[in-house]
Fold this sequence. Notes:
This is Tandem-95 repeat protein. The protein is mainly beta. The chain contains three helices and twelve strands; from the N terminus they run E-E-E-E-E-E-E-E-E-E-E-E-H-H-H. It folds into three domains: 8-59, no CATH class; 70-171, Immunoglobulin-like, CATH 2.60.40; 185-268, no CATH class. The chain is elongated.
Amino acid sequence: DTTGTLGLVTDNGDGTFGYDPNGAFEALAAGEQATDSFTYTVDDGQGGSDTATVTVAITGQNDAPVAMDDSYDTAGNTTVADNLLANDSDPDSTDVLEVSAVQGSAAAVGTTIALASGAEVTVGQNGDFTYNANGAFDGLLRDMAAVDTFTYTVSDGNGGLDTASVGIVVNADQDSDGVADIEDNAVFVFNPSQYDSDGDGYGNIIDADFDNDRVIGSADAAYFVGAFGTTDPHADLDGDGVVGSGDAALFVSLFGQPLGASAFDFIV
């Protein structure tokens, strides 16, 4: 009788049996023990029978931790801080995870190291980390972004290891307001302080993908028609017949910034 039995029991029909824990005891750490049981009945063919219980002792083995890749967005030199172990796990419920290496080096844990990009990162044994672009991406033009990466290794303290990658998307922030240019330079709404109009705790964001189809194309250009009557407006924005300060002022009111060069990444 396998009622209440956690593992899988196979009756071989000749008095022998097979037992498979079936993953039911993965939470046991190395050396931890648990038991599972089932009963069987024998009879002598003459009406006599008896029932016995079989108890199986299970000893846990170490299972490796699982380190999950992490990704973050930041603007300019704004520092990123979080805990890298927050989304990592271990099948062994009593194992305590720690960071054992950064960029493959155990000595880098708990110290500030420079990445190949010139940015700096500090990762503690408990998973807390800070990332500082350190001016490495100050040369990014408006609406451009760069991706920086580093790795960390997780240890369960019992020989189990796993390594994950951390990606940091650094967005250009030419006005150094801590908000990426791609977010704070709105086309139709002058919003230099990223006003939180809906009260959700996040500043307003407007980008060139007006119809939110993840493609910047003719459908988005149609939005310009509503504002200017054309997708390619003349420099005489205010229509007074003269290209001058009035047009520059209108440009500022629409774009939230003075006339100047602009650059962007176009991905197809």
